[in-house]
Amino acid sequence: MSSLIVISAIGSDRPGIVQALSGEVLGRAGNILDSRMTVLGGEFAILMLVSGEDKAIAQLEEDRELLERSLGLQLTLKRTRQRDTGNQALPYRVEVVAMDHPGIVHDIANFFSGRGINIDDLHTGTYAAPHTGTTMFNLHMTLSVPAEESISRLREAFFEFCETRNVDASMSPHRNRSI
Predict the structure, then answer these.
(1) Measured between alpha carbons, how far is 135 from 174 in angstroms, rounded to an integer?
(2) Which of 135, 13, 4 lies closest to 58, judged by CA?
(3) Mind spelling out the 3-state secondary structure of the chain?
(4) What confidence tens digit (pLDDT) does each residue in 131-171 have?
């Protein structure tokens, strides 16, 4: 019987982390189905969805402390299940650019969650604007918009929301959604 586990790992950034952790998963007969990996400050952060026979997943759980010591990572393992895709939702992509200031992510998340819209994926970052050096903020997210939601009303409300906050945004169908 196949099981699923989510592994989150964080540790000081250095070459070889991905190779080492993926090797440990493979060595226990696990298969990485999905992952996100990034450097944040001086830390390397990993999220991965791993499948495997019950015995393989149990071995990963049992070996957590050993893996933490040998890999130099803090690990969290959580069993999960296949995502329920029963509800009809439309995938949409949102892009935002603004001068950086506290609260942008919270405000945007609040806008969508208040309408029952799930955020499936979210990436943010900052960069220096050309010529001025002003710190700019960018956000990329993928949403699952309930099929009964009026897209035109949602888009109009979102753009009005962004306008009052001096935020540039776009919202479009996301055609490359993975399931």
Answers:
(1) 28
(2) 4
(3) CEEEEEEEEEEECCCCHHHHHHHHHHHCCCEEEEEEEEEECCEEEEEEEEEEEHHHHHHHHHCHHHHHHHHCCEEEEEEECCCCCCCCEEEEEEEEEEECCCCHHHHHHHHHHCCCCEEEEEEEEEEECCCCCCEEEEEEEEEEEECCCCHHHHHHHHHHHHHHCCCEEEEEECCCCCC
(4) 999 999 999 999 999 999 999 999 999 999 999 999 999 99
